[in-house]
Amino acid sequence: MVVMYALMIITVLSAILALIQKDLMKAAILTGFSGGALAVLFQLLLAPDVALTQAIVGAAIVPVFIALAIKKTQREDS
After folding, report:
1. How many CB atoms sit inside 10 A of residue 76's CB?
2. Residue pair 31/55 in contact by the 8 Å Cβ criterion
3. Which residues are within 8 A (CB) of 34 and not within 5 positions of it... i.e. 6 or more apart?
4. Any idea where the domains of the chain sit in the sequence?
5. Rounded distance, CA 57 to CA 20, Å?
6. DSSP run (H or E) holding 37
7. Is the separation of the CB atoms in 44 and 4 below 8 Å?
8. pLDDT tens-digit profile of 40-65?
C-alpha cells in the first residue's frame, strides 16, 4: 500500500516538474519517468494489459517523440 502511494506521488511530482522545466529535454525525460511510474502502478493494481500499454506508449514512445520534436525544431546559431 505504501508503494502505491509512493508511485502516485512520484507520478504527480514528475508531471508537475516536467511542466515547469525550462530545459525541454529534461521535460521529455520527466515525462517518461512519469509514464514509467504509472505503468508500475497499473501493474501493482493488477491491470497488466494497461500497464504494458502505458509502458510502451507513456514511458517510451511519447518521450522519444518529444525529444525528436525538440531536436528538429532547435535553432542553429550562425
Report:
1. 4
2. no
3. 10, 11, 14, 15, 18, 58
4. 2-72
5. 22
6. helix 24-44
7. yes
8. 999 999 999 999 999 999 999 999 99
* 65 grid coordinates: 517523440
Q: How many beta carbons lie within 10 A of that of residue 65, not counting itself?
A: 12
Name the grid cell of 55: 509502458
Q: How far apart are CA 4 and CA 68, in angstroms?
A: 32
Q: How many residues does the chain have?
A: 78
27 vs 18: CA distance, rounded Å: 4
pLDDT in tens, 1-24: 899 999 999 999 999 999 999 999
* DSSP secondary structure letter of residue 3: H
Residue type, 50: V
